[in-house]
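INSTRUCTION: Work out how this chain folds

Token vocabulary: learned, describes local backbone geometry

RECORD BEGINS BELOW THIS LINE
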Amino acid sequence: MILILGGTSESREAAILCARQNYPVLYTSTTDIMDEIPQTVERWIGLLSSDIFRNLIRHRCISCVIDATHPFAVEISQQAMDVCNQTNIPYLR
């Protein structure tokens, strides 16, 4: 499963493209504005702590993380890089 860190129009586009290719996707956002996201895309709404992040990777069998957050969302991006390094999961930005 691909984990997409969202909340931007680019992240929604990434989720749509992955869904069209039949990739399983878990889309995360701090808000529930997901009107354009296909129903086949799973959703997780809320803030991600490092522990929650690691649990999602472990329990949802995440194979890679696509960080499509806002460029100023430095904290979540750094956290994603750290967790991906710790779990040997590819991180794409």
User: Anything to note?
Assistant: The first strand starts at residue 2 and ends at 5. The chain has three helices and five strands. The chain has a mean pLDDT of 91. The first helix runs from residue 9 to 20.
